[in-house]
Amino acid sequence: MANYSLVKHTDMMAEVRDEAVDICMNAVEKFPKDLQKCTHFIKESMDKKFGSPWHCVAGKGFAFEVSHETKNILYVFVAGETGVLIWKC
Amino acid sequence: MPPKKKPAGKGKKAAETPEPDHAGEEQEKVPVNTSMFSLENEVERKVVKPSNQLELTEDELNQEMLTVLKSTNPQAPKSIVRYDFNEQCFKPEAMVDQFTIHYRTDGWLLHSESEEGKQQLEAKKKEAAAIEDFKAAISKATEADEQEAKQYRNQFNFTERAAQTYNHGTRDRMAATEPPTVLTYSGSTTQWEIYDAYMKDFAVQQMQNESRSSKKTIAEPKKEKQKESTVKKEEKEDIMHTQNMSAAAKVMERVMNQNTNEDITQDFKYWDDQADKFRENEGTLLPLWKFTNEKTKKRNVTSICWNPEYPDMFAVGFGSFDFTKQGRGMICCYSLKNPSFPEFLLYTESGVMCLDFHPQQSSLLACGLYDGTVQVYDIRNKIRTPIFQSTARTGKHTDPVWQIFWEEADLNKWMQFYSISSDGRVTLWTLTKAELLYEDIMELQPHAQALTSIEADSAQFSRLESGCCFDFNRLSDHLFIVGTEEGVIHKCSKSYNSQYLENYTEHGMSVYAVKWNPFLSNVFLSASADWQVKVWDHNHSKSLYSFDLNAPVADIAWAPYSSTVFAAISSDGKVLVYDLSMNRNQPICEQKISKKPRLTKVCFNPHSPVLLVGDERGCVTSLKLSPNLRKALDNTESKDKQVQANNMKTIVDIALKQQ
């Protein structure tokens, strides 16, 4: 399966988006077995870099409906099998 | 226990000794009763006896009874039997404990010589000593305190004061920020959705690759098109160099200059030296703008010429008077409106020595160069090349051209001008359509008086006198005067080219300038290196007036508004203004313009009371004449030419009478 990340939906600025995608990829690579730690890591680093409060959902299958601040959502598929959704609200 | 009853008790005991058990009981009972009695006796003194009390007689009561205390306990059991395991049988206990305790108390007194007693005594002593010490310390401390208190008590009679600052009222302010806009987004993630998304992306990438490879093939022809378009763009973008832009830039430059030099402009227009009202026959010069720039700094100002059409415009020629420092020449055309940079400037191959604007065709500028060339420029032309130029074939001078002068057009309406050079020729140049024609009007033959015997020999080589300057009479057409390096001034006529009408020989060194009076046709002025400025009547060989300036006189100029006013500049940096009608001996104004550089040229503006002075460092200074120096200009009566001519004539007459 493809090992690059595919941004499914976002309205972030390009620079923020690149950074966020990087963070998601790092997290998924770092904790391939433990999604809880993975999401925790993503949330922490997003909070640190772009200011809280960020929320994160990661998993192989889930459905969602979230309210988010404009320009602050990213829905990305990482490494071909994990969906990561991060948003700020 | 009341002691008086005891004997009674004892008496009873004595009576009942045979039954110690009873006696014991009674002993216990009696005290209770007696105590009750004693309490009641105090109140009633009533004796109550138990009913079974023996009635004893006095004798019986006084009878002595003996009781003996034995070491046996009457209440101890006498026959205790215990089982003896050794002998396997019961045995009576032989020894019975006879010991009983009726009353017991611990003593608290100690013997003073016992160990513990000694310790306690010592401890007491120590305690007492410690208390003593403590008290002593306290008393000392209090004494010290009192002393201190005495020392510092209220030395300055303090009073305590307090003030409270005003408390500002508090106020609440509130503002609400707009909450950040919020959107909702929903979706789902499943493995197949992820898979589909990647497949879609893959397809898109492939499409892009295909289109890229196809683009490469199309790219080359496109590039050429781009080039064409860029060329077109450049043409369009060249707005900065259009005529409109340069015109706008010029306007802008003028405005900027007007802003920066506003005070000078105000001075030029309105300022008059108020001091002139209170002194007669004296005036001052007010420096206005200075016209200079980097390019002209190392060149001398060799000529200044006002444009006849535009009163604010003048041309300045730059060259060098020094034979060893010749280089390229330059002509700058300045306007009073823009002192920062010339309106135009052009370079010549050799140093410019003289300039003249054509009086009618104000764009025609004739100029003479150090190498003898004369040139005519049309300053309207964009291309800075002369429209006419003399060459070696067409009668070019062989020495520097010192002065140049436009003549009235001849019968064929060709324009003409004269030039004079050190090679001894005065030449008339005619501008025909195709070429520049020349005609020598005069060859300056050395006149007999000036020749010594040696020079007479060298005259065989047909050596000519070097002309320095000339001026043409405005009223009598044919007449002109020539100043030479030898110091002789010749009066010549255009009609006779081999003969002088008159020679004026008062100057001892080269004559730098000769000028006809603009109002009275027979008077002219000369300036020389021998420090002299002289006023002449051309009908008389002797000068009318002579002024000594104590320095070589570089140039002179008649004022255009008055027949009696002229300005002279000396090489030591002074500008002198003379008014013969006011003072025939002294200048009415003598002002040092510059410290170091020699002044080289002077020129009056024909319309406004402004004087231009050029120096050897390429700087032209404009000076405003104070009211005393331009009385004629303000006086309406004196604008009449005849009046002016008469003024001068009277002065000439005075001089002639004195002679």
From TrEMBL, chain A:
<keyword id="KW-0505">Motor protein</keyword>
<comment type="similarity">
    <text>Belongs to the dynein light chain family.</text>
</comment>
<dbReference type="Pfam" id="PF01221">
    <property type="entry name" value="Dynein_light"/>
</dbReference>
<keyword id="KW-0963">Cytoplasm</keyword>
<dbReference type="InterPro" id="IPR001372">
    <property type="entry name" value="Dynein_light_chain_typ-1/2"/>
</dbReference>
<protein>
    <recommendedName>
        <fullName>Dynein light chain</fullName>
    </recommendedName>
</protein>
<keyword id="KW-0493">Microtubule</keyword>
<comment type="function">
    <text>Force generating protein of respiratory cilia. Produces force towards the minus ends of microtubules. Dynein has ATPase activity.</text>
</comment>
<comment type="subunit">
    <text>Consists of at least two heavy chains and a number of intermediate and light chains.</text>
</comment>
<dbReference type="GO" id="GO:0005874">
    <property type="term" value="C:microtubule"/>
</dbReference>
<keyword id="KW-0969">Cilium</keyword>
<keyword id="KW-0966">Cell projection</keyword>
<dbReference type="InterPro" id="IPR037177">
    <property type="entry name" value="DLC_sf"/>
</dbReference>
<dbReference type="GO" id="GO:0007017">
    <property type="term" value="P:microtubule-based process"/>
</dbReference>
<dbReference type="GO" id="GO:0005930">
    <property type="term" value="C:axoneme"/>
</dbReference>
<keyword id="KW-0206">Cytoskeleton</keyword>
<keyword id="KW-0243">Dynein</keyword>
<dbReference type="GO" id="GO:0030286">
    <property type="term" value="C:dynein complex"/>
</dbReference>
TrEMBL record, chain B:
<feature type="compositionally biased region" description="Basic residues">
    <location>
        <begin position="1"/>
        <end position="12"/>
    </location>
</feature>
<dbReference type="InterPro" id="IPR050687">
    <property type="entry name" value="Dynein_IC"/>
</dbReference>
<feature type="compositionally biased region" description="Basic and acidic residues">
    <location>
        <begin position="13"/>
        <end position="29"/>
    </location>
</feature>
<dbReference type="GO" id="GO:0045503">
    <property type="term" value="F:dynein light chain binding"/>
</dbReference>
<dbReference type="GO" id="GO:0045504">
    <property type="term" value="F:dynein heavy chain binding"/>
</dbReference>
<dbReference type="GO" id="GO:0003341">
    <property type="term" value="P:cilium movement"/>
</dbReference>
<keyword id="KW-0505">Motor protein</keyword>
<feature type="region of interest" description="Disordered">
    <location>
        <begin position="1"/>
        <end position="38"/>
    </location>
</feature>
<dbReference type="GO" id="GO:0036157">
    <property type="term" value="C:outer dynein arm"/>
</dbReference>
<protein>
    <recommendedName>
        <fullName>WD40 repeat domain-containing protein</fullName>
    </recommendedName>
</protein>
<dbReference type="InterPro" id="IPR001680">
    <property type="entry name" value="WD40_rpt"/>
</dbReference>
<keyword id="KW-0493">Microtubule</keyword>
<keyword id="KW-0853">WD repeat</keyword>
<dbReference type="Pfam" id="PF00400">
    <property type="entry name" value="WD40"/>
</dbReference>
<keyword id="KW-0243">Dynein</keyword>
<feature type="compositionally biased region" description="Basic and acidic residues">
    <location>
        <begin position="217"/>
        <end position="240"/>
    </location>
</feature>
<feature type="repeat" description="WD">
    <location>
        <begin position="504"/>
        <end position="546"/>
    </location>
</feature>
<dbReference type="InterPro" id="IPR036322">
    <property type="entry name" value="WD40_repeat_dom_sf"/>
</dbReference>
<feature type="region of interest" description="Disordered">
    <location>
        <begin position="210"/>
        <end position="240"/>
    </location>
</feature>
<keyword id="KW-0963">Cytoplasm</keyword>
<keyword id="KW-0677">Repeat</keyword>
<dbReference type="GO" id="GO:0036158">
    <property type="term" value="P:outer dynein arm assembly"/>
</dbReference>
